[in-house]
Design a protein that fits this description.
It is a single chain. By secondary structure, the chain is an alpha/beta fold. The chain is 41% helix and 15% strand. It is built from 10 helices and 7 strands. The chain has a 7-stranded mixed sheet, with helices on both faces. Strand 4, helix 3 and strand 5 form a beta-alpha-beta unit. Helix 2 packs across helix 3, helix 4 packs across helix 5 and helix 5 runs antiparallel to helix 6. The longest helix has 14 residues.
Length: 256
């Protein structure tokens, strides 16, 4: 499957994977700092951004398989939200150098023995609203991402700008919600041996920071960083802090 990929800069390969309803342009404010040191690959997931929608895709493995040909071996993969789940699945399917998991959860919806997820009833209501008015529902989702954030207005403006550039295909939005509803990665975490940095926002209303703490404890070689007074998009709201965390992590695990 052909996906739209922007490649910029020189250096170690760094792949950026966005979250539900967004596209690779959501990382644009990071690029001036990253492209001086990394060969950055911004990938638009199927039906998002400038990537075409190629038909039903209802599992995380299908999504990762579509992304895999566009990821260089031994790359650092930075995944945000749904993109973080794709990164974890990629780590099962190919050799990677390291993972950065931003606002990521192994299981999006709450259930038995998992309280760090969205209540099933709330998720079902969200899914129903998407059928009724997908534009309004996505806008509400963006507002929820920044609730409680110290820089909510600026972050929301940036997210809305990205969304309006390339709205996702409606069918791809449904696929993404199906994947978020059904995915549970807890059973594979112990087998992922890549160094990993897990970053969560203190006030994240989409993926609870407790899910990030769980990831960091369950992955064999992971560390956890909590971004104070941040919501779901700390790479926008707290960009300087985020870039420093990234650089410290990469320096600790240089390419040999």
């Amino acid at each position: 499957m052909s996906l739209h990929v922007r490649v910029q800069g020189q250096g170690q390969d760094l792949v950026l994977l966005h979250g539900w309803a967004m596209h690779g342009g959501v990382f644009d404010e990071l690029l001036p700092s990253l492209t001086t040191q990394y060969r950055v690959h911004c990938i638009d997931l199927p039906g998002h951004g400038q990537s075409r929608y190629h038909g039903e895709m209802n599992s995380l493995q299908q999504l990762a398989t579509a992304v895999l040909p566009h990821v260089p071996e031994n790359a650092i993969v930075l995944g945000w939200s749904l993109g973080g789940q794709v990164a974890l699945q990629l780590a099962q399917q190919m050799p990677l150098h390291a993972l950065m998991l931003v606002s990521t959860t192994p299981r999006f919806v709450a259930g038995d023995n998992w309280q760090s997820g969205m209540p099933e009833e709330t998720f079902a209501q969200f899914f129903a609203r998407l059928h009724e008015n997908h534009g309004r529902t996505v806008q509400d989702f963006l507002s929820l991402q920044v609730r409680g954030d110290a820089h909510a207005a600026v972050t929301l403006s940036s997210l809305k700008h990205s969304l309006l550039q390339y709205p996702a295909v409606t069918e791809a939005l449904y696929d993404g919600l199906n994947i978020l509803r059904d995915t549970d990665l807890r059973s594979i975490l112990a087998s992922i041996k890549n160094p990993a940095l897990v970053i969560s926002g203190e006030y994240d209303r989409i993926t609870h920071p407790g899910a990030g703490e769980y990831l960091a404890q369950a992955l064999p070689f992971a560390q956890f960083a909590l971004c104070r007074r941040a919501g779901h998009a700390p790479f926008i709201s707290h960009r300087d802090w985020f870039l420093e965390q990234l650089q410290q992590f990469v320096r600790a695990y240089p390419v040999t």
